[in-house]
Amino acid sequence: MHAIRPLFLLCHLLWPTAFIIAQTPICTIQGAGSASALDGQVHTTTGIVTAVYLGSGTIQGYFIEDPTCDSDPATSNGLFVYQPNATGISVGQRLQVTGTVDEFQGLTELRSITGVQVLGSGAVTPTEIALPIATLNNWERYEGMLLLFPQQLLVTDTRNWVQYGEVMLASERALFPTEVVDPNDAVPANTSSTGTANAAAVLARYALNERSRILLDDGRTTSYPEPPPLLGPQGTLRAGSTITGLTAVLSYAFDAYRLQPAGAVSLVHAARPPVPSMGGDITLASLNVLNYFTTLGVWGATTNAELQRQRTKLVAALQAINADAMVLCELENNDVAWADLQAALNAAMGAGTYAVREADASGTGGTRTAIFYKPSVLTPQGPLQALNTTQFQRPHLTQAFLVNATGGRFLLSSVHLRSKLCDNATGSNLDQGDGQGCYNALRREQVTALVAHWNDVRSSTGIAAQVILGDFNAYSQEDPIDRLRAAGLVDLLPPDAHTYRFEGTFGRLDHAFGTVQFGAAVASTAVWNLNSDEPAELDYREENLSRYQPGPYRSADHDALVVGIHSAWIELGVEGAAPAAPVVQLRHQEGQLVWSAAVHGPFRVELYDAQGRHLATTTSHVGMVMHPTTGLAGQPLLWRARAGGDAMIGQGRAVVVR
Questions:
Q1: What is the reported pLDDT for 6?
Q2: Cα four-point dihedral sign 268, 269, 274, 278
Q3: Which domains, from first to last, does the chain contain?
């Protein structure tokens, strides 16, 4: 027995006999399964209208709901009525509807409507729901119902926004599973780089991401609505934009549950971020330029007009960053593409602003990487070192630079590892089901070869300060990154940074690593999210011409990395002055780091983590500075000692052993 039947008896007393038809409650039509057991049968039901989508280009119907249908949480109390030619339907009407039950693309609905009677009016209190949902199967129990999401929801994916008016919402910015879960180690900080002992946790993170999101549709069936729904004042809809208190009905189409808005959607647009303001006096950067090809119709632009727009956007981005040296990935493998981009950038910033260091990749196809640098600020020292064996798809570059103003020397290295695309993958390079995609084994081997190569370069040049920038095609907890950390290289980026979006999930495919000696000179690091949070439909392609903006945003698909350094803090290297006896000495004593200095008067010690974030400043007492090691075990620490006003009298690193 359904709880609604006594109500029908009451209605029999109040309404004219002509209105009374045998009723089938909405919850009975819906049933507890994914499809109605009454599919294909004619039935009459009653409900209150919660949302209406009528007229050309809409889903051409309305939703009704009976809040008192039954007490079974597994059966929905809402139903879609497909009635393209309906008139006079409005929210709040209590309707009696007769039609044929149909499972249309997985949505239970009434269609072929033969009778509609207005029985009165009423109101439906939305059912509150929060993400993540307990199981994906639970969406079915809300199909057709009016829902309220009291929590703040974030826009996480806009790939169907322009064409279909759809956006993906989630309870938080969804991270790609291997950005935060290590496939080998239960503790992400560990550095195992083989095996799949923790792969189940990766799969669990995939499932959590799925349970934490839902599509928001626009109630329409037409393609390319103009303007797209939820368009912001900057002509975009960025990931990270927020909606709070969303009220919508739950529908199903094209293999996905989706929300159709019931009333206005109040969205707070995430603003486009400016270029990060970096500390220090030298700025380094990295950007994957997304197939900058001057050969048309290959991987990049297909027409001269597209190439011009692509060039305009990239120049705007690179000019805004204004780095003293930068690694650019995914340039066409010839001498024309990088020279074309260099010429355009120098035309915008002044003749001779940037010079280039590059090396040919093997073969005639594919891409290469180049280092753009300002000769007014940096001077190359020695030849360009390029690791270019058959193990790699393109040369990996290392160039020693001298800072003209200070004499400091550092190594700048590029990385662009094999992509995750599965083309021609075999054996261990096939997807192993651990979240790392295809060619993980090759990327792991490439990192091993690079680490050995970089060790040789540091040894041969005598320069210990090295920074490594580029597109690693590996998220932060994947095997290649573990091997970098195991080699003693320091992750320089903030841990919550993201550089890439893939199907509504975010993470770091681009990285900045450095030796501890380079880390000692880092002032700040940041990611400029100019691309990954932007819709792809704002790029340079012909089909996006009506939305094209010549500025830097959506100039590529990866975000830019930016590193600021204090050049005066870089060690001089083998060609620098002979080291003098240290003024400041550090020792570890009974749970304390203890600094002593051969100076008159007080001095202070500034303590930083490997990313250059300030941890503490302590002033000397009786000629010593002491700082407890509690909570510092295992992480590289950078310290700088100063005396008098701001004179630096010493610097170095410390690692507190567990």
A1: 31
A2: positive
A3: 5-125 (2.40.50.200), 282-569 (3.60.10.10), 584-655 (2.60.40)
